[in-house]
Amino acid sequence: MSTNATPSTNATASAPTDRVDAYDRLVAAVPEVQRKGATMPYTSVNGNMFSYLDASGAMALRLSTADRATFIGRFSTHLHEAYGIVQKQYVTVPGPLLDDTEQLLPWFRSSLEYASSLRPKPTMGSRKG
Description:
The protein has one domain: Yope Regulator, Chain: A (2-Layer Sandwich). Helix content is 38%, strand content 21%. It has helices spanning 17-28, 65-75, 95-99, 101-117, 124-127, and strands spanning 42-45, 48-53, 59-62, 79-82, 85-93. The longest helix is centred in the last third of the chain and has 17 residues, at 101-117.
């Protein structure tokens, strides 16, 4: 089985297929980013996750402090919550915005830029002996 995430992985993703498709379109719009994760689609750079799609189909996007405040105000959203824990660096992307790749793309690029500025973390692949 291939480890590359392609639209064919949608059958194994926990999120609804239409949400996975919208997420895949967004990720594909930034050629230097590769979608990872079969059951929980996500993106990361230097071992730092910067976006993911949860099982309900909600997208979480990691943003800088200033971008988070602007995003929350502009799109009337909130910090993302997972398993009862508020994720302080992630916002929940409203469903209609996830469908609008063109409007969401600058925020996705900002998220990539922010995650790229963080200290690199070892990835699971680099921990294996």
